[in-house]
Amino acid sequence: MSISTPSAADWERWGIDPAWHRMVRIERPNAVDVEWSILDTGVGERGTIVCVHGNPTWGYLWKGFLETLSPEWRVIAVDQTGMGWSERSTPRTLETRVAELVAFCEQHTSGPLVIAAHDWGGPVALGAVSSLDVQAVILGNTGVGLPARTPMPPLIATARRFVDLSCRRSPVFVNGTAAMTAKRHREALRAPYQSAERRTAVAEFVADIPLSEADVSWNALQKSANNLSNLDVPLLLVWGGRDRV
To answer: What is the C-alpha separation between 147 and 171, in angstroms, rounded?
Structure first.
């Protein structure tokens, strides 16, 4: 287990209220407890929005939600296991990440619940919705499957082919993602991933992307896709046009 968190000065430099940050423990039957880093604005009048980042980002991605939706909503931006400032632990599959998100929501939220997700946080969130009393879902720049004969997006395909080199041993994937954002966000987005050790889960996340039925997370991804098809709550789809993925 390895946990390192920013100082109050770091949070303030990134435009984040240091009071929002805390560590929480997630418990699951027949599994080792894990500690997550979260940004939590506190009580909300209408309910809670749990925000799930993708790869290789972290809870800072939801800075706009944190700043603008509180106090009407309690906004919680989580860092998934091995990502951001959360505990570095054993490799996670999509199924494990879904189970941890469900456990987090059950143990650390109450009242009306909205799930927001971006990138590969989308399949994680959609895998969880069937186990939670979710009132609405917000999805941005995500997907839960590719149509037959549709090639994998080039950035993902390249990262998958050279996953250890591009995602763990070097900061190419992290820096390339941060470079697609405004300059004021880049330091914060790169901050949790300054060493190969801290980028291990970044590589594992990419390696876990299922491309065929032979891959471990194929069935979990199909479940996420089925949950999307069967969703009977309001769904907002948002697409940032400058996201090359």
So the answer is: 31
Q: What's residue 136's pLDDT?
A: 99
Global pTM?
A: 0.95
Give the neighbor-by-neighbor strand order of the sheet with 235-238. Answer: 21-26, 34-40, 74-78, 48-52, 113-118, 134-140, 235-238
What are the beta bridge partners of residue 235?
Answer: 137
| Ranges of each domain in the chain | 8-145+216-238
- The class of domain 8-145+216-238 in CATH terms is alpha beta
Residue 108: φ, ψ to 5°: -130, 10
Give mean pLDDT in consecutive 10-residue pieces for the chain, a chain of 245 residues. 83 98 96 98 96 98 97 98 97 98 98 97 98 98 78 74 94 94 97 98 95 91 95 95 73
Provide φ and ψ at 240, rounded to 5°: -80, 115
Q: In this structure, are strands 74-78 and 34-40 parallel, antiparallel, or unpaired?
A: antiparallel
Residue 185: exposed, middle, or buried by beta-carbon count in 10 A (0-12, 13-18, 19+)?
A: middle
pLDDT tens, residue by residue, 166-211: 999 999 999 999 999 999 999 999 999 999 999 999 999 999 998 8
Q: Taking the C-alpha atoms of 155, 161, 167 and 169 in order, what is their torsion angle to the nearest 10 degrees?
A: -140
